[in-house]
Design a protein that fits this description.
This is DYH5 protein. One of its GO terms (cellular component) is axonemal dynein complex. GO terms for molecular function: dynein intermediate chain binding; dynein light intermediate chain binding. It is a single chain. The chain has one domain. It has six helices and no strands. Helix 2 packs antiparallel against helix 4 and helix 5 packs antiparallel against helix 6. The protein is elongated. The N and C termini lie far apart (49 Å). 19% of the residues are buried.
């Protein structure tokens, strides 16, 4: 079930900021970490021992599932690591005045470019584009708040 959810197309609101991206991957990491812990349990090891001893054909399917779970867990872990590294750059989008917010943008863009160049999983145009959309949405929210406060 968790793998099926992982493979589904992501649907989210247009006005989410970059914190939402980190939260999304943290939740995925938590789910897959729990699954990985379950796979290491004595009960699962015992079942695998029985299947191995019986030379079951289910082992091939099990190994394929295990590989998919491990890969998804690694992706979530990697993405959380890199998105955490952006936090200091996107915090001004939430907490600063417009001038400080604008001053933070070049550092944020450079950090995102760095992630795109070195991340094993977060380097797709879809993920990077989605992150830039979230940054833009948060800027827009902040400017809207300031505008309504002034008016």
């Amino acid at each position: 079930k968790v793998l099926a959810e992982n493979d589904q197309l992501r649907k989210e609101a247009d006005d989410l900021g970059p914190r939402a991206e980190l939260d999304y991957w943290k939740k995925k990491l938590s789910k897959f970490h729990y699954l990985m812990e379950q796979l290491k349990s004595p009960d699962v090891k015992a079942v695998l021992g029985v299947l191995t001893a019986a030379k079951s054909k289910l082992l091939k399917k099990w190994r394929a599932l295990d590989i998919r779970i491990t890969d998804a867990a690694n992706e979530a872990k990697d993405n959380v690591k890199y998105l955490y590294s952006l936090e200091k750059y996107y915090d001004p989008l939430y907490n600063s005045d417009p001038v400080s917010m604008l001053d933070a943008i070049p550092g944020l863009i450079n950090a995102i470019k760095m992630i795109q160049s070195i991340s094993q999983y977060y380097n797709t145009s879809e993920k990077i584009s989605s992150l830039f959309v979230k940054v833009g949405a948060q800027q827009e929210k902040k400017y809207s708040q300031i505008f309504f406060c002034v008016v």
